[in-house]
Amino acid sequence: MKRLTLLIPVVVIAVAVVLSSMFVVDERENVLVLQFGQVKQVREEPGLYFRIPFIQEVVRYDARILGLQTQPLEVTPADDRRLVVDAFARWRIEDVQRFRQAVGVEGIRAAQVRIESILNAAIRQVLGSVPSGAVLSENRTGLMNQTRDVARREALSLGVDVIDVRLTRTDLPEQNLAATYARMRAEREREAADEIARGNEAAQRIRALADRTVVELVSSATRDSEIIRGEADAQRNRVYAEAFGRDPEFFAFSRSMTSYERALGANSAMVLSPDSDYFRFLRESDPFGAGAQGATSAAAEVPAEAPAPEAEADPAPAAEPAPAGAPASTAPAGTGLAAPAESN
């Protein structure tokens, strides 16, 4: 029983020693086994490994790709225009043992400080050899690749591989922004003035062409309308002439009625002689001359050998002059008809 009591602590101690001598390497890390500060083992493959407990020490480093954002850096390109540049780098530990010897016990934090100084020097070297226009342009991938190559060569002494370098921000210093914006504003205003001038020139050219087209169209339309109006007037006169020649008495009556309708309005007043020829058709009971036609028929029945005596002939009275304002007659002379002309 006493032996068992003594054996249990021994077994516990032995198990503790065995467990403390074992360590596991993850696939995301590299491990150094140190003995009194000296590197004894380098474990980069994942698995289970052993060490001497209480004598050897295990130091772990991240084997993944790490990122580093640099502080804003002021550089001077070849044209002496100062720029403020930010950079972002991707890096990883390439040689764990060299990395340990370079940075010591501070590890990743010390490595980031030294890598940032290397990046700043590389950025100044590369960007200082080109004008600011090349730095501010979109095609600056070549500059970033040159910066990466320079930083990679310098970082090899730390056991670090710089995978990529990107310029995240490239701006002018605050004291230069006002002058730069003023110059840009002046250039844009000049371009706007040029565009406005070209637009006004084009507008005047188009307006002149439109005015000429309007004049041509109006002239052509006026000419066509005058031709059509002349043809219509000729056709109207021909119709009037045919109607006048076919029945002069009815034509004179129709024209007089039209004149009465247009001249005698609701509040119209006319000063005429009572026996004026203008109202002849209103005074006559037989405006179409039915009695005259009967007399003409009776005279036609009288033999031609006995002509009517000249004393009995009743000459047609002379037509009275039309008063002022009355329409002029279009009937032929000697007929005694008053057919006023169309009012305009």
Automatic annotation (TrEMBL):
Domain of life, per lineage: Bacteria
CC annotations in GO: membrane
Keywords: Hydrolase, Membrane, Protease, Transmembrane, Transmembrane helix
Topology within the bilayer: Single-pass membrane protein
Domain Band: 20-184
Regions annotated as coiled coil: none
GO-annotated biological processes: proteolysis
Function: HflC and HflK could regulate a protease.
Name of the molecule in the record: Protein HflC
